[in-house]
Each structure stands twice: as structure tokens, then as C-alpha cells.
Amino acid sequence: MAWPGVCHWGADALARTLAAAGPRLRLPLVVTDAGTWGALGPAVEAALAAVPGLQWHVYDGVVPNPAIAQVRAALGTAHDLDCASILAVGGGSAIDVAKAVYACLAGGLEADELATPRGQAWLNSAVEGTDPLFIAVPTTSGTGSESSSAALIQGDDGRKRLYRSLRARPSLVALQPDLTLSLPLRPTAQGGFDAVLHALGAWINTDPSPVGKAMALQALRLCMRALPDVLRAPDSLRARADMQMGAYMAGLAIGMSKVDAVHAMCTPLESRVHMAHAEVLGPIFSVVARHTAQTAATPYAEAARALGIAASEDEQQDATALIEAVESLARLAGIPLRFAGLALSAQDAAQLASQAMLSASMPINPRVLAHEEIQSLYLQMAA
């Protein structure tokens, strides 16, 4: 079990994080997207300018569902300008790109080497005291990338690849709730729903980590309470703070315990449909959770009872109550629970099932799913 770096949470988290960085913060490359930087760049630059003698450069070319081409571009900027540390500002896409750039800088790698044995050897190696500084400033509450060991990057072939590395995880994190206020309501809702399913997936799976389970349950409690509050009162800093911490804890949970078949089946399909992550998760959850709970209701029922959603003696009834509560949250967030116009042939579904079975989260789904079952579930979603 490996804990992440130091996390500062609250109104002045960014300033405290930069102060904690000390002399390790040298000529950082800010990795972000144009929209986030347009809205929050002045505030972040004001905080950076308060650090005596600090200079920095900005790469703002990150886009949703980031590709390896953006890693190459950001890494080229870092090399050209002799950047010595990384500061990620944005949502999961920016932090994932920053993780990949950081790994390349620290490991002396090119972007295309990340998937090679040499790149994997560095990603799987232990943190060293000489590693450069990596700070994450999440401006969304969703993926938990700031606290997890994973980064999802699309390859040149269009397929998304999951890179895991404790060494490439941020060593300092600033959770400052007011930095999430500029995010429009739709991506706020989508990110929050993703965090809910991260927490739920880490809770229900069969991984035995007791700390991961504790993190997952508390993250689920925070996210399911805070997300409706954020959607009803977007300017509530209390709700924003709870949502940030819930997403952060969910990221910790999946780093310790992974997730379940919902996310395992999501990644292959995302490469095909090019939709927002949460809009792929919603329909998959509705089908897969109900199928899983038919023979593995216990973890769903336990969560329902712990969260006060249900309290009967019937596990199936309580499991259904939890699933319906998550579906209600999806509707509140404007996330569909059915795909519109998804066309899959039996061969398509078989290929997706083969890819989903490669996920480390698939074998620990509480109901073990065979290839034929997964194929059938994909076809059910497309019906």
C-alpha cells in the first residue's frame, strides 16, 4: 500500500502548496487546457508570481480524451524551455497528460517509449529522492487523477491505454474549492458522476484492501451527498469542497483497490463512440450493475445500508435501492442511462469484450463475467 504525496485542502491551498514546494519548485511547465487557463490562469499566475524569483512556462494544448500527440507536444515544450518541474492545472485530461510528461522528463524517455519495456520499467520503479517535483491543481471533481496512479492516454491507433505508476503520481496536490467554480454545470455533473462510480466500483469489487474499502465508502458517502448540493447550488463552496475531497478519496480508493466491470467495459467502448466519459458510464452502469447484483448483491446492499439508502433484511431489495439511487443521481446530472443510436454487431461486441477482459478490474468484479456474458451485455446496451 503506497500513500500519495501531501495534499493541501481549503481556501488558500494553492499558496500553501507552492510554499511547501520550497526550492524544488524550479522553472515549472504548467500543463493545462486553453479553457481552464483562460478562466483561471490569472489566479494561478498570481500565486506563482508570489514565489520569489520563480519563472514558469505554459503548455495549454490539452483537450478532452487526450492523445499521445499532446504528450509529445508538451514534452517538446518542456525540453525546449529547460523546464525542471511540472504543474498540472485542470481536470483529469490535463493531469493525465502531465503524468505522462513527468514520467518522460524524470525517466529520460520519449513519449512513444512509455508503452515499451523501457518505459514500463521506469513506470514500475520506486520513487527516488532526486525525482523532479510534480504538483497537481485539480479544477474539476471527478477522475481523481490527482491522487490515483493511473493515466489514460489515447494512442495513435485511437485506442485508449491505461498507464499506471506510483512514481508518476503528483507529490503535492492543492484542493482549492473556488478553483472549481468556473467549470460549467454540465462537466461538473459529469465529473461528479464519474467520482461516484469510482467510489462504488472500489467498494463493491473483491479486492481485499481494508484501507481501500474504507476510502471507497467514505468517498461514496461524500460524493452522493455533495453532487446534488453542487448541482442545486453551484456557488456553494462547502459543497464544492466536499465534492473535491470525495473525488480525491475515490482516486485513492481506486489506486488501492481498482474498480469493477463498469469501468473495465467503459474504456474499450469510449475508443469507439467518442462520447464524454460519464455519458458512456451511465448506460454501462445501468446494465452491468443490475446484472452483477443478480448473483452478487451483498456489496451493493452493504453500501445502501451504510449510506442510509435502505435498511431491509432483503439483500436484493437493498442492492436495487442503491442502484436506483445512483441512477436517480445520473438523471439529476443529465446523464443518459441508455445509448441513443449505438450500433454494435456481434463481432464488434466480441472485440470489445476481449479488450474489456484485459482490464485488471474485470477479474475482481463481484460477479465474475465470462467473455460471452460481456459480449451479451454490450449487445444489450446497443439494443
UniProtKB/TrEMBL annotation:
Q: What's the protein here called?
A: Iron-containing alcohol dehydrogenase family protein 2
**What is a single molecular function from GO for this protein?**
alcohol dehydrogenase (NAD+) activity
Into which family does the record put it? Answer: Belongs to the iron-containing alcohol dehydrogenase family.
Q: Which UniProt keywords apply?
A: Oxidoreductase
Species classification: Bacteria, Pseudomonadati, Pseudomonadota, Betaproteobacteria, Burkholderiales
Q: Does this entry carry the keyword Hydrolase?
A: no
Q: Which SUPFAM superfamilies match?
A: Dehydroquinate synthase-like
Q: Is Oxidoreductase a UniProt keyword of this protein?
A: yes
Top-level taxon of the source organism: Bacteria
Among Pfam families, the record links this protein to:
ADH_Fe_C (PF25137), Fe-ADH (PF00465)
Fe-containing alcohol dehydrogenase-like C-terminal domain segment(s): 188-379
Q: Which CDD domains match?
A: Fe-ADH
The Alcohol dehydrogenase iron-type/glycerol dehydrogenase GldA domain sits at 10-177
